[in-house]
Specification:
By secondary structure, this protein is α+β, with helices and mostly antiparallel strands. The protein contains eleven helices and twelve strands. The structure holds flavin-adenine dinucleotide.
Length: 281
Protein backbone atom coordinates (compact mmCIF):
# COMPACT_ATOMS: atom_id res chain seq x y z
CA UNK A 1 0.00 0.00 0.00
CA UNK A 2 1.25 3.54 -0.76
CA UNK A 3 0.33 6.62 1.23
CA UNK A 4 -0.56 9.76 -0.75
CA UNK A 5 0.50 13.18 0.50
CA UNK A 6 -1.17 16.53 -0.18
CA UNK A 7 1.14 19.31 1.09
CA UNK A 8 -0.38 22.74 1.80
CA UNK A 9 2.73 24.78 1.06
CA UNK A 10 5.90 24.56 -1.02
CA UNK A 11 7.93 24.32 2.18
CA UNK A 12 5.89 21.35 3.39
CA UNK A 13 6.31 19.65 -0.02
CA UNK A 14 10.09 20.13 0.08
CA UNK A 15 10.34 18.82 3.65
CA UNK A 16 8.39 15.69 2.68
CA UNK A 17 10.63 15.24 -0.38
CA UNK A 18 13.74 15.45 1.82
CA UNK A 19 12.44 12.54 3.92
CA UNK A 20 11.24 10.07 1.26
CA UNK A 21 11.00 9.57 -2.50
CA UNK A 22 7.65 10.48 -4.01
CA UNK A 23 6.04 10.51 -7.44
CA UNK A 24 5.20 14.17 -8.02
CA UNK A 25 1.63 14.44 -9.29
CA UNK A 26 0.84 17.79 -10.90
CA UNK A 27 -2.00 17.92 -13.47
CA UNK A 28 -1.70 14.08 -13.74
CA UNK A 29 -2.56 14.15 -17.46
CA UNK A 30 0.58 12.18 -18.29
CA UNK A 31 0.79 10.16 -15.09
CA UNK A 32 -2.75 8.78 -15.10
CA UNK A 33 -2.21 7.50 -18.65
CA UNK A 34 1.22 6.02 -17.81
CA UNK A 35 0.00 4.37 -14.58
CA UNK A 36 -3.43 3.26 -15.79
CA UNK A 37 -4.52 -0.29 -15.24
CA UNK A 38 -6.52 -1.96 -17.98
CA UNK A 39 -8.67 -3.83 -15.48
CA UNK A 40 -10.27 -0.52 -14.45
CA UNK A 41 -8.80 -0.56 -10.96
CA UNK A 42 -7.11 2.55 -9.55
CA UNK A 43 -3.69 3.54 -11.02
CA UNK A 44 -0.67 1.84 -9.44
CA UNK A 45 2.11 4.04 -8.03
CA UNK A 46 5.31 2.30 -6.93
CA UNK A 47 6.26 5.37 -4.87
CA UNK A 48 3.75 7.34 -2.82
CA UNK A 49 2.16 10.18 -4.82
CA UNK A 50 2.75 13.78 -3.71
CA UNK A 51 0.00 16.01 -5.08
CA UNK A 52 1.26 19.52 -5.86
CA UNK A 53 -1.38 20.86 -8.29
CA UNK A 54 -3.20 22.58 -5.39
CA UNK A 55 -0.14 24.64 -4.36
CA UNK A 56 -1.41 28.17 -4.97
CA UNK A 57 2.01 29.75 -4.41
CA UNK A 58 3.23 28.03 -7.60
CA UNK A 59 0.14 29.04 -9.62
CA UNK A 60 1.15 32.34 -11.26
CA UNK A 61 2.55 33.95 -14.36
CA UNK A 62 4.27 37.32 -14.01
CA UNK A 63 6.94 39.61 -15.44
CA UNK A 64 9.98 40.15 -13.21
CA UNK A 65 13.29 41.84 -14.09
CA UNK A 66 12.46 41.77 -17.80
CA UNK A 67 11.69 38.03 -17.79
CA UNK A 68 8.45 36.04 -17.73
CA UNK A 69 8.15 33.65 -14.79
CA UNK A 70 5.67 30.77 -14.88
CA UNK A 71 4.97 28.90 -11.66
CA UNK A 72 5.01 25.10 -11.79
CA UNK A 73 1.31 24.53 -11.13
CA UNK A 74 0.02 27.12 -13.64
CA UNK A 75 -2.25 25.47 -16.22
CA UNK A 76 -1.43 25.51 -19.93
CA UNK A 77 -4.75 27.31 -20.51
CA UNK A 78 -3.73 30.15 -18.15
CA UNK A 79 -0.38 30.46 -19.96
CA UNK A 80 -2.14 30.44 -23.36
CA UNK A 81 -4.27 33.47 -22.45
CA UNK A 82 -1.66 35.58 -20.66
CA UNK A 83 -0.84 38.74 -22.69
CA UNK A 84 2.93 38.39 -22.14
CA UNK A 85 3.19 34.75 -23.18
CA UNK A 86 5.53 34.58 -26.22
CA UNK A 87 3.58 34.07 -29.47
CA UNK A 88 5.45 30.87 -30.31
CA UNK A 89 4.36 29.31 -27.00
CA UNK A 90 0.75 30.41 -27.57
CA UNK A 91 0.77 28.78 -31.03
CA UNK A 92 2.18 25.61 -29.54
CA UNK A 93 -0.20 25.37 -26.58
CA UNK A 94 -3.15 25.76 -28.98
CA UNK A 95 -2.07 22.50 -30.65
CA UNK A 96 -1.75 20.65 -27.33
CA UNK A 97 -4.49 18.26 -26.22
CA UNK A 98 -7.97 19.80 -25.77
CA UNK A 99 -9.17 22.76 -23.65
CA UNK A 100 -10.28 20.39 -20.88
CA UNK A 101 -6.83 18.76 -20.64
CA UNK A 102 -5.10 22.14 -20.95
CA UNK A 103 -6.98 23.44 -17.89
CA UNK A 104 -5.42 20.60 -15.90
CA UNK A 105 -1.99 20.09 -17.56
CA UNK A 106 1.11 22.14 -16.71
CA UNK A 107 4.33 23.23 -18.39
CA UNK A 108 6.46 21.69 -15.63
CA UNK A 109 4.73 18.32 -16.22
CA UNK A 110 5.47 18.49 -19.96
CA UNK A 111 9.12 19.34 -19.18
CA UNK A 112 9.72 16.62 -16.59
CA UNK A 113 7.98 14.08 -18.84
CA UNK A 114 10.79 14.86 -21.33
CA UNK A 115 9.21 13.20 -24.34
CA UNK A 116 10.95 13.93 -27.68
CA UNK A 117 7.42 14.74 -28.93
CA UNK A 118 6.53 17.02 -25.97
CA UNK A 119 5.13 20.04 -27.78
CA UNK A 120 5.97 22.85 -25.36
CA UNK A 121 9.62 21.77 -25.40
CA UNK A 122 10.12 23.02 -28.97
CA UNK A 123 9.07 26.50 -27.82
CA UNK A 124 11.11 26.35 -24.62
CA UNK A 125 14.27 25.36 -26.55
CA UNK A 126 13.69 28.17 -29.06
CA UNK A 127 13.27 30.70 -26.27
CA UNK A 128 16.26 29.44 -24.23
CA UNK A 129 14.04 28.83 -21.22
CA UNK A 130 15.52 28.26 -17.76
CA UNK A 131 14.18 25.68 -15.35
CA UNK A 132 14.23 26.55 -11.66
CA UNK A 133 14.40 23.67 -9.17
CA UNK A 134 14.20 23.70 -5.38
CA UNK A 135 14.96 21.16 -2.74
CA UNK A 136 14.74 21.80 1.00
CA UNK A 137 18.12 23.56 1.07
CA UNK A 138 18.91 25.09 -2.28
CA UNK A 139 17.77 26.46 -5.64
CA UNK A 140 19.24 25.46 -9.02
CA UNK A 141 18.69 27.17 -12.35
CA UNK A 142 19.37 25.04 -15.44
CA UNK A 143 18.85 25.80 -19.12
CA UNK A 144 16.27 23.58 -20.81
CA UNK A 145 18.98 22.21 -23.13
CA UNK A 146 21.03 20.99 -20.16
CA UNK A 147 18.01 19.91 -18.10
CA UNK A 148 16.70 17.34 -20.61
CA UNK A 149 19.46 14.80 -21.13
CA UNK A 150 17.77 11.96 -23.02
CA UNK A 151 14.40 10.38 -23.81
CA UNK A 152 12.37 10.84 -20.57
CA UNK A 153 15.55 11.67 -18.60
CA UNK A 154 16.21 14.98 -16.90
CA UNK A 155 18.73 16.35 -14.41
CA UNK A 156 16.12 16.56 -11.63
CA UNK A 157 17.17 14.87 -8.38
CA UNK A 158 14.57 12.90 -6.43
CA UNK A 159 14.30 15.57 -3.70
CA UNK A 160 13.89 18.45 -6.18
CA UNK A 161 10.74 20.09 -7.44
CA UNK A 162 10.53 22.19 -10.59
CA UNK A 163 9.17 25.41 -9.10
CA UNK A 164 9.14 27.71 -12.12
CA UNK A 165 10.08 28.23 -15.75
CA UNK A 166 11.72 31.52 -16.78
CA UNK A 167 11.46 32.91 -20.32
CA UNK A 168 12.67 36.08 -22.01
CA UNK A 169 10.00 38.59 -23.03
CA UNK A 170 9.13 38.11 -26.71
CA UNK A 171 11.30 40.10 -29.14
CA UNK A 172 10.87 38.14 -32.37
CA UNK A 173 9.23 39.72 -35.43
CA UNK A 174 8.26 36.39 -37.02
CA UNK A 175 7.47 32.99 -35.58
CA UNK A 176 6.41 29.70 -37.12
CA UNK A 177 5.22 26.45 -35.59
CA UNK A 178 3.90 23.38 -37.37
CA UNK A 179 2.91 20.18 -35.67
CA UNK A 180 2.27 17.24 -37.96
CA UNK A 181 -0.09 14.63 -36.53
CA UNK A 182 -3.20 12.67 -37.37
CA UNK A 183 -5.28 15.69 -36.22
CA UNK A 184 -4.51 19.40 -35.82
CA UNK A 185 -4.79 19.13 -32.04
CA UNK A 186 -5.35 16.47 -29.35
CA UNK A 187 -2.77 14.20 -30.98
CA UNK A 188 0.89 13.48 -30.30
CA UNK A 189 3.24 14.94 -32.94
CA UNK A 190 4.77 12.73 -35.63
CA UNK A 191 7.14 15.63 -36.21
CA UNK A 192 7.16 19.27 -35.13
CA UNK A 193 9.01 22.33 -36.41
CA UNK A 194 9.47 25.74 -34.84
CA UNK A 195 11.31 28.86 -35.99
CA UNK A 196 11.87 32.37 -34.67
CA UNK A 197 13.40 35.33 -36.49
CA UNK A 198 14.26 38.86 -35.51
CA UNK A 199 14.91 40.93 -38.65
CA UNK A 200 15.82 44.63 -38.80
CA UNK A 201 16.27 46.47 -42.12
CA UNK A 202 16.38 43.11 -43.92
CA UNK A 203 19.29 41.87 -41.70
CA UNK A 204 18.82 38.76 -39.60
CA UNK A 205 19.59 39.83 -36.03
CA UNK A 206 18.56 36.53 -34.47
CA UNK A 207 17.26 33.25 -35.85
CA UNK A 208 16.37 30.04 -34.06
CA UNK A 209 15.26 26.71 -35.49
CA UNK A 210 14.09 23.63 -33.57
CA UNK A 211 12.59 20.23 -34.40
CA UNK A 212 10.51 17.91 -32.23
CA UNK A 213 10.15 14.12 -32.53
CA UNK A 214 13.16 13.65 -34.83
CA UNK A 215 15.87 13.09 -32.20
CA UNK A 216 16.14 11.89 -28.58
CA UNK A 217 15.54 15.48 -27.37
CA UNK A 218 14.36 18.60 -29.19
CA UNK A 219 16.97 19.28 -31.89
CA UNK A 220 18.53 22.73 -32.19
CA UNK A 221 21.92 23.64 -33.74
CA UNK A 222 23.44 26.92 -32.61
CA UNK A 223 26.27 26.44 -35.10
CA UNK A 224 23.90 26.40 -38.06
CA UNK A 225 21.85 29.27 -36.64
CA UNK A 226 25.04 31.36 -36.24
CA UNK A 227 25.85 30.91 -39.93
CA UNK A 228 22.69 32.95 -40.65
CA UNK A 229 23.16 35.72 -38.08
CA UNK A 230 23.89 39.15 -39.54
CA UNK A 231 23.11 37.99 -43.10
CA UNK A 232 20.79 39.91 -45.40
CA UNK A 233 17.52 38.01 -45.91
CA UNK A 234 18.25 37.94 -49.67
CA UNK A 235 21.27 35.66 -48.95
CA UNK A 236 19.09 32.85 -47.58
CA UNK A 237 18.13 31.20 -50.93
CA UNK A 238 21.76 30.62 -51.89
CA UNK A 239 22.51 29.19 -48.43
CA UNK A 240 19.45 26.93 -48.41
CA UNK A 241 21.13 23.83 -49.80
CA UNK A 242 23.92 23.87 -47.18
CA UNK A 243 21.43 24.58 -44.38
CA UNK A 244 19.20 21.67 -45.42
CA UNK A 245 22.21 19.36 -45.63
CA UNK A 246 23.40 20.52 -42.21
CA UNK A 247 20.11 19.64 -40.53
CA UNK A 248 19.74 16.42 -42.58
CA UNK A 249 22.98 15.18 -41.00
CA UNK A 250 21.68 15.91 -37.47
CA UNK A 251 18.11 14.61 -37.71
CA UNK A 252 17.90 11.01 -36.41
CA UNK A 253 14.25 9.96 -36.13
CA UNK A 254 12.95 6.57 -35.07
CA UNK A 255 10.25 4.26 -36.41
CA UNK A 256 7.35 3.88 -34.00
CA UNK A 257 3.56 3.42 -33.94
CA UNK A 258 3.01 7.04 -34.99
CA UNK A 259 5.33 7.32 -37.99
CA UNK A 260 8.56 6.15 -39.59
CA UNK A 261 12.07 7.55 -40.03
CA UNK A 262 11.70 8.41 -43.70
CA UNK A 263 8.44 10.32 -43.24
CA UNK A 264 9.73 12.19 -40.19
CA UNK A 265 12.99 13.25 -41.81
CA UNK A 266 11.44 14.24 -45.16
CA UNK A 267 8.66 16.22 -43.47
CA UNK A 268 11.04 17.97 -41.06
CA UNK A 269 13.24 19.11 -43.95
CA UNK A 270 10.22 20.22 -46.01
CA UNK A 271 9.02 22.34 -43.07
CA UNK A 272 12.50 23.84 -42.70
CA UNK A 273 12.64 24.65 -46.42
CA UNK A 274 9.25 26.40 -46.27
CA UNK A 275 10.45 28.43 -43.27
CA UNK A 276 13.68 29.45 -45.07
CA UNK A 277 11.66 30.44 -48.17
CA UNK A 278 9.44 32.63 -45.99
CA UNK A 279 12.48 34.63 -44.80
CA UNK A 280 13.65 35.72 -48.25
CA UNK A 281 10.14 36.63 -49.47
C1 LIG B 1 -5.78 13.35 -24.00
C2 LIG B 1 -4.36 13.86 -23.84
C3 LIG B 1 -3.82 14.63 -24.86
C4 LIG B 1 -2.51 15.10 -24.73
N1 LIG B 1 -2.00 15.87 -25.75
C5 LIG B 1 -0.72 16.32 -25.67
C6 LIG B 1 -0.17 17.10 -26.73
O1 LIG B 1 -0.82 17.43 -27.73
N2 LIG B 1 1.13 17.49 -26.62
C7 LIG B 1 1.90 17.17 -25.52
O2 LIG B 1 3.08 17.58 -25.47
N3 LIG B 1 1.38 16.46 -24.50
C8 LIG B 1 0.11 16.02 -24.54
N4 LIG B 1 -0.43 15.28 -23.52
C9 LIG B 1 0.41 14.96 -22.37
C10 LIG B 1 0.25 15.90 -21.13
O3 LIG B 1 -1.02 16.52 -21.12
C11 LIG B 1 1.33 17.00 -21.07
O4 LIG B 1 2.62 16.41 -21.09
C12 LIG B 1 1.19 17.87 -19.80
O5 LIG B 1 1.88 19.08 -20.00
C13 LIG B 1 1.67 17.18 -18.53
O6 LIG B 1 1.44 18.05 -17.43
P1 LIG B 1 0.83 17.50 -16.05
O7 LIG B 1 0.85 18.64 -15.10
O8 LIG B 1 -0.49 16.84 -16.28
O9 LIG B 1 1.93 16.41 -15.68
P2 LIG B 1 1.82 15.13 -14.71
O10 LIG B 1 1.11 14.02 -15.42
O11 LIG B 1 1.29 15.51 -13.38
O12 LIG B 1 3.38 14.79 -14.57
C14 LIG B 1 4.18 14.42 -15.67
C15 LIG B 1 5.60 14.09 -15.16
O13 LIG B 1 6.23 15.24 -14.64
C16 LIG B 1 6.53 15.11 -13.24
N5 LIG B 1 6.26 16.43 -12.67
C17 LIG B 1 5.15 17.20 -12.88
N6 LIG B 1 5.31 18.40 -12.31
C18 LIG B 1 6.53 18.41 -11.73
C19 LIG B 1 7.26 19.39 -10.98
N7 LIG B 1 6.75 20.61 -10.75
N8 LIG B 1 8.49 19.07 -10.53
C20 LIG B 1 9.01 17.84 -10.77
N9 LIG B 1 8.38 16.88 -11.48
C21 LIG B 1 7.14 17.16 -11.95
C22 LIG B 1 5.64 13.98 -12.76
O14 LIG B 1 6.20 13.31 -11.63
C23 LIG B 1 5.60 13.09 -14.00
O15 LIG B 1 6.79 12.34 -14.09
C24 LIG B 1 -1.74 14.80 -23.59
C25 LIG B 1 -2.31 14.03 -22.56
C26 LIG B 1 -3.61 13.57 -22.68
C27 LIG B 1 -4.19 12.74 -21.56
Amino acid sequence: MVEARIPHSLQEALILMSQATYTIVNGATDLLVQKRSWSGTIPKFSQPPLYIRGLKELDYICERSGMLEIGATTSLETILHHPKTPKILQHIILTMASPAIRHQATLSGNIQNASPAGDSLVGLYLLDASIVLHNRHHERVISIQDFIVDVRKTMREADELITKVVLPIDKFSQCAYTKVGPRKTDAIAKVAFGGLIDIENDRIRDIRIAFGAVYKTVLRSRKIEESLMGKDRSAVPEMKHVLLEGYASLIQPIDDQRSNRWYRKTTALNLLEAFLDSISR
